[in-house]
Write a structure and sequence with these properties.
seven-stranded mixed β-sheet; single chain; Rossmann fold; Alpha-Beta Plaits; alpha/beta; 14 strands; four-stranded antiparallel β-sheet
């Protein structure tokens, strides 16, 4: 696997958090801050270079002093980044580790192998961790799961490891879908990954729908998602800033959902709804 590295420099003393968000908007969840520079990497698949070009423009428009890119082979990526990413335990059973880190797992552990920077969703962001925790708590074994806005595919992998009988991962981003397929193979699980909206094409009913996406999209999709879930099923949502939670809750309740559980971490909200 190869990577494209993006390094952006800013004026000394600037708050870099807005620029971290810009990296995230273009699919790079993990960045390294060194002085007045930020560095991130995106896995190199079809369409990645176009995304990098768009990111470069966005960073310069936002005030970056310089933006540099270079190709990295897998070995160089590991050498440069391995010191920053270690296995992370999430919930009671999940462990997310990069490919270069070994982990002495127990029989109860569910180990997900993912490298940072591939696409959104590596377990390093609160929204992803909260979703995995809620999936674990939802008794997924034997159920069907639809992952809308799959990103790296981490939630689909997690659902498979929890014993879901069928998992479908959908994203409007072709790069995310390709990354999800690669992570599917790396973790030796089976699910379908396709490009699309996820609520207009598939008419079958699902036991669980999981959506780690922005609040505005959750609000827009609430009624359509309700039509996709069988009675008694669950909608697990994340990606919600605390200030936006009341609007998401209102939209979900109007669509026919009942709040079952809500969790917060670092200003982010995730929730599980029943119907």
């Amino acid at each position: 696997m190869s990577w494209i590295e993006v390094k952006a420099g800013f004026e000394a003393g600037q708050d870099l958090s807005p620029y971290v968000d810009i990296f995230g908007e273009y699919g790079i969840e993990n960045t390294l801050e060194e002085g007045s520079t930020l560095t991130g990497c995106l896995v190199s698949v079809e369409g990645s270079q176009d995304r990098i070009n768009e990111l470069e423009v966005a960073l310069k428009v936002a005030g970056a002093v310089f933006v540099e890119t270079r190709d990295l082979v897998e070995d160089n990526w590991e050498i440069a980044w391995r010191q920053f990413f270690k296995p992370r335990r999430i919930g009671k059973r999940f462990v997310v580790r990069p490919t270069w880190e070994e982990f002495a797992s127990t029989p109860e552990d569910l180990v997900i192998v993912l490298d940072p920077g591939q696409a959104f969703g590596t377990g390093d962001h609160p929204t992803t961790r909260l979703c995995l925790e809620l999936l674990e708590a939802d008794q997924i074994s034997g159920q069907t799961v639809l992952d809308i806005g799959c990103g790296s595919g981490i939630l689909s992998v997690g659902a498979c490891l929890l014993g879901a009988t069928k998992v479908l991962a959908i994203d409007i981003d072709p790069i995310a879908v390709e990354v999800a397929k690669e992570n599917r193979e790396m973790n030796q699980v089976q699910f379908e990954a396709v490009i699309g909206e996820g609520v207009l094409v598939y008419e079958e009913k699902w036991d669980v729908v999981v959506s780690n996406i922005i609040s505005a999209t959750l609000i827009r999709l609430a009624r359509d998602v309700r039509q996709l879930i069988r009675d008694g099923g669950s909608w697990i949502v994340s990606g919600i800033i605390v200030d936006n939670w009341p609007d998401v809750l209102e939209a979900a309740e109007k669509a026919g959902f009942k709040l079952r559980e809500k969790r917060e971490e670092d200003g982010w909200v995730a929730a599980a709804f029943s119907c």
